[in-house]
Write a structure and sequence with these properties.
Oligomer: heterodimer
Number of domains of chain A: 1
Largest sheet of chain B: 2 strands, antiparallel
Helix content of chain A: over 70%
Structural class of chain A: mainly alpha
Number of strands of chain A: 2
Number of domains of chain B: 1
Order of helices and strands of chain B: HHHHHHEEHHHHHHH
Strand order of the largest sheet of chain A: 1-2
Shape of chain B: globular
Order of helices and strands of chain A: HHHHHHEHHHHHEHHHH
Distance between the termini of chain A: 34 Å
Number of helices of chain B: 13
Strand order of the largest sheet of chain B: 1-2
Largest sheet of chain A: 2 strands, antiparallel
Number of strands of chain B: 2
Strand content of chain B: under 5%
Structural class of chain B: mainly alpha
């Protein structure tokens, strides 16, 4: 491989707080300033941010490109929908718990098979396995509703807040803050993971597999655990996404949705911690407005992707860092 | 017994088209080590161009050839049908030097991403040119009528498709193993640097291989469009099936693509007859199992 791997930049805690606190203030204040539509749109962005964050543990930190993360997003979403359909559960915390358990089971099995390979074969195997789940969701219509999908009513948050009455208002306030809280918890947890000895080991494997093996890292086991954690984060995002969308269809299991997760991560920059989050939020706006603006939104996004990969391979965050460095050097 | 024969014919029909698509994908991977996610769209593009060209030709010459069902029309339509293959090859010849060439020296992730972007673009280009409605060339299919096999009847046109698939396999084999160009192609595939050092113009070989791969995909689309219609989304579906084919057979191996296409054709036909709910899941599971047992595929080189 002729790629030069750039070490992920680790900012000092003080400097991190320098941008994290203002960002947090904006996110908390938004429902008071923006209208309901904008708030819900941002909630979608935050949910996709969790999914991309999980995905990037594999791509950015472990060096494995998965083209099957739609499967785990879908497992999270369908677990919630099936809990509603068969068990009549309404508690959001139960949904999240159920989604995590289901995702651990699925990613443990899929990951066991996939981490034996790297590079292109890893990508194809993850894609093939995700398509197995997609075709099951698609064909077993008496369980999954087929292409009609399954409806999910607004859940009960923390056992007290219900969405009875104005659904939009519920989504734009209570549910938005719920998503934001889970989002912050996920970001914090992922930050701890990538800066832990485990996270360092993953980066060592990514940069040089042979050397990592020589210092005693059990490569396959580490990759497997990374796969599991990555899938569970994305599955959690799927579970949070369903009440927001109100409906889950097999589309979110299809491999082209995996492609979108890859897209948003690269858009933000997969060589940085914040890249996938920013990429997901930007992609969400980009897609929403492109879909509203033209029926040929795919063309628009495709051109953006090609131009991005051709000219800005480090994504938004990488490019911003470079510009800032150049500005400082002057 | 007749019904088994019909199923076998259907499996062969399916395998022929799949071989053309997956063979092209595999050829491109074998020579330039690129997995082209937009390959299925070139197949769709071929189907659309052929259906459109056949329709135009019929409309323009309607009176003179004795209507769509006349003998003259059939010959005309057959002559025009390969237009889709030529169009797909032309697109390939433009895409490789402009979009793909900058990526050979970069990580695989970027190659996959740029072809994914291409997939999205081509999807909408097709929608933009031909609109959201299906396009057919069914007059050709109907003109061939049908054959009676025992108690069953079978469309004659399908035999043509099977024949084209078989012929393509033979020609491709002869092309790659019996011509000078084939030698250069195989040499470049095995060691690009060494081939370049020995005076092979690698850039030209890459364009030719990519164009040939796209031609095959376009031909697959062109020959299937009279019996099925060209619809949006056919490219993405075909891509996934040809992935299964190349994974089973081995990425980069044409023999593998042939065997893989036959296996997928048979399993799919059996699936439609006996286990329709899990037909697709079984196919993907077969691909996953082959990858686990023989990562390079049945015919592949690691």
């Amino acid at each position: 491989m002729s790629t030069v791997t750039v070490a992920l930049e680790h900012r000092s805690p003080v400097r991190t707080l320098g941008w994290a606190v203002p960002a947090l203030v904006i996110l908390v204040a938004l429902p008071f300033v923006a209208d309901q539509y904008q708030t819900i749109l941002l909630a979608y962005g935050l949910v996709m941010g969790i999914a991309a964050l999980g995905f990037n543990l594999l791509l950015g930190y472990t060096g494995l490109l998965s083209f099957g993360h739609s499967a785990y997003f879908g497992v999270g979403a369908y677990t919630v929908a099936l809990m509603v359909k068969y068990l009549g559960v309404t508690s959001m915390e139960a949904y999240l718990g159920g989604a995590i358990i289901a995702c651990v089971l699925v990613t443990a099995i899929f990951g066991f098979a996939c981490v034996r390979y790297t590079r292109i074969f890893f990508g194809i195997l993850t894609m093939a396995l995700s398509q197995v789940l997609w075709s099951l969701a698609f064909k077993f219509f008496w369980v999954t509703g087929g292409t009609d999908g399954l409806r999910v009513p607004t859940p009960t948050l923390l056992g007290v807040v219900t969405g009875s009455g104005d659904k939009i208002a519920f989504l734009a306030t209570a549910y938005y803050y719920y998503v934001l809280a889970v989002f912050i918890a996920c970001v914090a947890l992922m930050w701890v993971i990538v800066n832990s000895p485990f996270g360092r080991a993953l980066q060592a494997i990514r940069d040089n597999e042979v050397r990592a093996a020589f210092v005693g890292i059990q490569i396959r086991k580490y990759r497997w655990v990374a796969f599991l954690v990555s899938g569970v984060f994305t599955g959690l995002a799927g579970a949070l996404w369903v009440p927001l969308n109100g409906l889950t269809t097999p589309d979110i299991m299809h491999w082209t949705f995996s492609g979108e997760i890859v897209f948003m991560t690269v858009l933000g920059g997969f060589r940085s911690f914040t890249g996938p989050i920013i990429g997901a939020i930007v992609f969400n706006y980009l897609k929403t407005y492109a879909v509203g603006y033209t029926v040929y939104w795919q063309l628009l996004l495709g051109v953006v992707l090609v131009v991005l990969v051709l000219s800005l391979p480090t994504g938004i965050v990488g490019t911003a860092d470079r510009l800032r460095a150049r500005w400082r050097a002057r | 017994m007749d019904i088994v024969f019909i199923h076998l014919l259907n499996a062969l029909l399916y395998a022929s088209v799949l071989f053309l698509i997956a063979g092209g994908l595999s050829l491109i991977y074998g020579v330039m080590r690129i997995v082209n996610l937009a390959h299925g769209n070139l197949y769709a593009f071929g189907a659309y161009v052929s259906a459109w060209a056949v329709g135009r030709a019929l409309a323009m010459t309607g009176g003179e050839t004795g209507g769509p069902s006349g003998m003259g029309s059939t010959v005309l339509m057959l002559a025009i049908l390969p237009a889709g293959a030529v169009a797909a090859a032309a697109v390939g010849a433009v895409l490789e030097p402009t979009l793909l060439r900058p990526f050979y020296r970069r990580a695989e992730e970027y190659q996959l991403l740029v072809t994914f972007g291409l997939l999205m673009i081509l999807d909408d280009v097709i929608r933009f040119i031909w609109g959201p409605y299906p396009l057919t060339a069914s007059a050709l299919f109907e003109n061939f009528g049908s054959l009676t096999i025992g108690d069953a009847i079978y469309p004659t046109y399908n035999f043509l498709v099977i024949g084209v698939g078989a012929l393509a396999a033979v020609f491709l084999w002869a092309f790659i193993y019996r011509t000078r160009f084939g030698v250069v192609l195989r040499a470049t595939s095995q060691d690009m640097r060494m081939a370049a050092a020995l005076g092979v113009n690698v850039n030209r070989v890459y364009v030719q291989a990519f164009t040939l791969g796209c031609l095959m995909a376009g031909l697959g689309g062109a020959i299937i469009v009279p019996s099925q219609s060209a619809v949006l989304g056919m490219g993405v579906d075909a891509l996934i099936l040809s992935f299964i084919v190349v994974v089973v057979g081995g990425l980069g191996s044409l023999e593998g693509a042939l065997l893989g296409a036959l296996i997928v054709g048979l399993v799919r036909e059996a699936g439609i007859a006996f286990f329709p709910e899990i037909e697709l899941a079984v196919l993907y599971l077969i691909a996953a199992l082959v990858l686990l047992v023989r990562p390079a595929g049945l015919f592949g080189r690691a």
